[in-house]
Amino acid sequence: MSVGERKPWTRDELMLAINLYCKTPFGRIHMRNSDIIELSNNLGRTPGSVSYKLANFASIDPTIDRKGAVNVSKLDREIWNEFFADWEAMILESEARMAQLKKTESKVEESDDYLAKDGETRSAFVQARINQDFFRKMILTSYNNLCCITGIDNAGLLVASHIVPWARDAKNRLNPMNGLCLNALHDRAFDKGLISIDESYNVIVSKNVKHKLISQYDGKPITLPDRFVPDQNFLSFHRENIFLGH
Question: Which stretches within the chain are classed as H helix?
Answer without folding.
Answer: 11-22, 34-43, 47-60, 74-85, 87-101, 112-115, 119-142, 184-191, 212-215, 232-241
